[in-house]
Amino acid sequence: MRTQRKPKQIQLAIHLYSALDSMYDDPPAGLPRLSPKEFKAKYVLPWRDAKYSSPDEALARIQLMLSEAEAQALPVALHDAVCVESICAFVGVSMHYLRKDDREEAWSMFALAQHGLGVRAGADSGAAGDRLSAIASLGGKARAAKDPKQREKTFIKDCWQDWQLKPDTYKSKAAFAVDMLDKCEHLSSQKKIEDWCRTWESETLTLPAE
After folding, report:
1. Are residues 172 and 102 in the same domain?
2. Average pLDDT, stretch 171-194?
3. What is the model's pTM?
4. How far apart (Å, rounded) are the C-alpha atoms in residues 98 and 104?
């Protein structure tokens, strides 16, 4: 088994160091110029070597770092520096899970780092402040994707959309909600599902006509 795993570990490690190289070769004005070893030690290794109770905790820490930076109303020149720090954090957490041989989480964190690089490259100087929010949202979306309740909510919305096409399927929101509870494992509130139905209805009513 180890011989099958190793090539994929090496492949991911190469991608991770490529991401770091791209940031090191295009440093933000707000960060001091460091050697590659110093850069890794300052911005990556603390995240690699930290202890996490779960991937959600790691993502929450990165989101907290970004939200604190937003709250400080940093100069635009420093926004890019915080973006780079957050991407390094994703890389470091990916390395953390790579060392634990959890390839699924390692690749997941690397994907967030890659997305962060895309956000950084795509934002012009006038929209620099939006970068922090955009990157912070990545972690939230990733956490939501892992949340079974969120997955079930997505499933319920798909069922609700089908119901709108075939109104005779259920006589009321209550009947729909009861059936959804039977189909779901992690949700238990009929009222919450009915509230979601009302929200989705209002969103549909406010959409502009084509």
Report:
1. no
2. 91
3. 0.64
4. 9
